[in-house]
Amino acid sequence: MLLQDGTSISSSSCRSLTRTLSVTRTVDSSRVPDSSSACWSVITFVTLAEGAVHEVLRFDALLMIGVYGEGHEGCAMNEPVALIGAGALGTVLGYHLAAAGRPVVVCGRTEVDRLAVTFDEDEPRGQPVKWVAAPEKLPAVRWAVLATKIGATAEVADWLARLPADGGVLVAQNGVDQRERVGAFTAAKAVPALAYLNCERLGPGHSLTRRTGRGIVVPDDDGGRAVAGLYEGSGLIVDVMADFSTAVWEKLVVNVVTNSLTALTGRRMEMLGDPDLRALALELAAETAAVARADGAALTVERAHGVVEWIAGIDPQLPTSMLQDRWAGRPLEHDGLLGPVVSRGEQHGVPTPVTTTVLRLLRGLR
Questions:
Q1: Residue 74 and residue 50: Cα distance in Å, rounded?
Q2: Is 19 exposed, middle or buried (0-12, 13-18, 19+ CB in 10 A)?
Q3: Annotated active-site positions, please?
Q4: What is the mean pLDDT of residues 134-160?
Q5: Does the chain have fewer CB atoms within 10 Å around its N or its C terminus?
Q6: What's residue 78's pLDDT?
């Protein structure tokens, strides 16, 4: 590996230093010697021992090794990637893959030959894709992006069954048990992803996304690093987290607070400006953190409250996915979001009276 000043470091050192890598941008190949048959890119990492920030030039061959895992085969640029669930979030994730030059195959009943994304009310940007209506028509793929609602997972089992054992599926679903939920339907490795993208469906294959400052979070393992490779050069921020179990519960705080309260009140994120709703949000966050700690995660109440404050500081006009589902009359995901807090709280002997009450109210919505 080469530092920008020409200093070389070992692959093992690079792997240890890139635990918190974030793919940022592509480097002009003219700056790098012997780059005619390779792809070089810039990643940023923090050297924790020295507190210094360096830019590192990393070589990526078609077989992604080094930070993607010794011997772990990635996805070549010309290999198609299946998109299962081209809703609001799926459209954005598929668009970014196509923008990086990867062939994308949209799976489902609705014909989509182009994925378009409108970023923060700008003009829409589009990427051509292919579409197949039935699993038996799907070309050979090793990777897929699954972006359906939790309750629709079993409905796409035939699509997931097409993936081989040496493949992978990026599971962009809510909840805390993505691996177990999807692993029952496919031989491929299920790689959970936590999406911090705010997406709104405008039509088939067209989404509006408002920037929150974050993209997706994946685990620091072979699967997660392979996903980072899939999205390299796509413009999507991919954070690779070593303590993924804590990251999962931290994201659950976001969902428990925002999805439940926006769906119940029918209001956008501005509802957190209401003192009563802010107080309720903090109680929900505290209960989630207590269950998370009992479940083995390192999520403190202070950190959970910090998540609420972060949410309150972003665009107040953002709608949540559950609010959009309620507007559209679709089933809500309350059992997949608040359900784990209540059930695991009971399992660990942690009381969750506020979460339990909110969950009951959500179940009563029509």
A1: 32
A2: middle
A3: 251
A4: 97
A5: C
A6: 84
